[in-house]
Design brief:
Helix content: over 70%
Shape: globular
Strand content: under 5%
Largest sheet: none
Structural class: mainly alpha
Radius of gyration: 25 Å
Order of helices and strands: HHHHHHHHHHHHHHHHHHH
Number of helices: 19
Length: 560
């Protein structure tokens, strides 16, 4: 699609970014609204499934559609993805039971996977490697914007309107974006007929589903050593071995193993995996500190954590501009991982007495690091892959980052629970969980047991309400247990942020091995219809590409 004029490319990108923002907002807006939705629909036991089903369906679709869009073009899949997502959003707003909401969120996830996979790959179709940095940065910034405004908007809607509007408010944005892509996005003729790797797709799905479920449930729903979790891990390993066997023999593999022969591709995806683990861990658990340790309200918590997300937006946009101007990316990735590592390390020393100015500074440091790093690893993966594999390579980058986030949050949740339990033992606060003395009535004993759950600290009104239910003579003990719980939560979160620091340190080390190939300002790819490409002069920044070459391999492949 390099033949399109710049104005049309920008218009297409604006419509793609609107689609991305539409999908991202519909994901982030749900978090703050879900407690109210559950209160109306019931089914608290299915609470986590509203998120889990979305993660499963979107992750699976991302990688499968990445390959199919390489074969059939991006346009039909991004349009189909928007249509499915709009349908899922509309149906979610009509849910009458929690089961319906879970099913409709699964439909949303299928659409989101298609949108994410094709949107980032479209940047590679439209722009030369050096120009992609700017747009990758802006696309990553759209996620940050959604994280800034989505939760606040979700809370406002459920407070002032019916919760159904959480899913409906952005539907016009999706329809407008769909119309723009339909009219502006060029239709690419189908490439030479190729077989679809059905067996590989099946076993890739059978690998991902049990693995994601295992990490989602381990440490929360089931113990890490439980039969359920170990069984899911065993099923994932067996399916993975079968998948690798199939892919080695497949004529048109869904995830070509040859991609991993490129050191740039492998290092970039490994770094993205670790970045995702550290990033999602910081974003997920920072509100716990602000609300549970500092005692800030949920509404104000959104404003306190906003600097981290705004710095992510600014860092992504700025980093993309730097890459496009210089054609260099390794130092930016290193700087991003350094910022994240130092920021998470400093966050691990935070206590209830830490000044708000320092807390905000640490969050800005982490957010800037994420913003610098996110666009780089998608860009390098695209630059390392042959043009015919651009879609599946881009999808793999998103998949590894998503897997890192899922696994990272699960591991940090386990660290949090273990350290809280350890601290409560040290403080002699186990009576809250083990039960009080026999002289206390069973009714009061049941209420005291609730203090064994640190999540209670995230809801100050509920905590104050619970305090009022105790006799005056027991309120001193109640306050003492709450103080211990605050201390234990702070101790647990210190371990969470330190774990995130160690994980991102791994990404920092990996960036040292990231081979840097200067990004070209020219498109070097095969003709869209399989015809011989027009001669392309050698770019001064890409000495490995001979004049007139149309092999489709990028410079990165030569270095991989």
């Amino acid at each position: 699609m390099e033949h399109l004029d710049q104005k049309k490319k920008i218009t297409i990108m604006i419509s793609i970014m609107a689609t991305m923002l539409f999908a991202a907002l519909n994901q982030t807006i749900v978090g703050t609204a879900l407690p109210r939705i559950i209160a109306e629909l019931g089914g608290m036991e299915y609470y986590s499934w509203v998120f889990t089903i979305y993660m499963l369906t979107s992750s699976i679709t991302t990688i499968l559609v990445g390959k199919l869009s390489d074969m059939y073009g991006r346009k039909p899949f991004i349009l189909t993805g928007i249509a499915i997502f709009i349908t899922g959003s509309f149906l979610s707003g009509t849910s009458g039971t929690i089961i319906q909401l879970v099913v409709y969120r699964g439909i949303q996830g299928f659409g989101a996977g298609m949108i994410m996979s094709t949107a980032f790959a479209s940047i590679g179709d439209l722009f030369a490697p050096r120009e992609r940095g700017r747009w990758q940065g802006l696309m990553s910034a759209s996620f940050g914007l959604a994280s800034v405004f989505g939760p606040t908007l979700g809370g406002y809607i459920v407070d002032h309107f019916e919760w159904h509007w959480v899913f409906w408010v952005f539907l016009p944005v999706g329809l407008i974006a769909m119309g723009l892509i339909w009219s502006l996005f060029p239709t690419v003729p189908r490439k030479e007929k190729a077989s679809i790797d059905y067996a590989g797709s099946l076993f890739l799905t059978l690998t991902m589903v049990p693995m994601l479920l295992a990490f989602s449930w381990a440490g929360s729903k089931y113990a890490w050593g439980s039969a359920q979790v170990l069984g899911l891990f065993a099923a994932a390993v067996i399916a993975l071995l079968v998948f690798l066997f199939i892919e080695r023999a497949a004529r048109n593999p869904v995830l070509p193993l040859s991609l991993f022969r490129s050191s740039i591709f492998t290092v970039s995806n490994a770094s993205g995996f670790l970045l995702g683990a550290g990033m999602f861990g910081a974003i997920m658990y920072m509100p716990f500190f602000v609300q549970g340790v500092l005692g800030t309200s949920a509404t104000n918590s959104g404003f306190v954590t906003m600097p981290m997300m705004l710095s992510l937006v600014i860092g992504s946009a700025l980093g993309g501009q730097i890459i496009s101007r210089t054609g260099k990316y390794k130092w930016l990735a290193f700087a991003g991982m350094t910022f994240m590592t130092v920021g998470l390390l400093l966050m691990s020393f935070m206590t209830a007495s830490t000044s708000m100015g320092l807390i905000v500074a640490y969050m800005i440091m982490v957010g800037t690091g994420v913003g610098f790093g996110m666009p780089v690893f998608t860009l390098t993966v695209q630059n390392a892959a042959e043009p015919r594999l651009l879609g599946v390579a881009t999808a793999s980058s998103q998949l590894f980052r998503s897997l890192g986030g899922t696994i990272g949050v699960s591991l940090m949740g386990t660290v949090l629970a273990h350290r809280i339990a350890t601290r409560m033992m040290e403080l002699g606060g186990t009576e809250a969980a083990a039960g009080p003395a026999p002289s206390v009535s069973p009714d009061v004993a049941e209420r005291l047991k609730a203090l064994g759950n640190p999540q209670l600290l995230l809801d100050p009104p509920k905590l104050a309400e619970l305090r009022e239910t105790f006799p005056e003579s027991m309120r001193g003990m109640f306050d003492n247990l709450v103080a211990k719980l605050h201390d234990a939560l702070g101790y647990g979160l210190s371990g969470v942020f330190l774990t995130g620091c160690f994980i991102v340190t791994g990404a920092l080390v990996l960036t040292l091995f990231l081979k840097e190939v200067p990004l070209s300002s020219a498109m070097k790819r095969k003709g869209e219809e399989g015809q011989a490409p027009a001669p392309t002069p050698t770019s001064p920044t890409s000495p490995t590409a001979p004049a007139g070459a149309g092999t489709g391999a990028t410079q990165a492949n030569a270095g991989g």
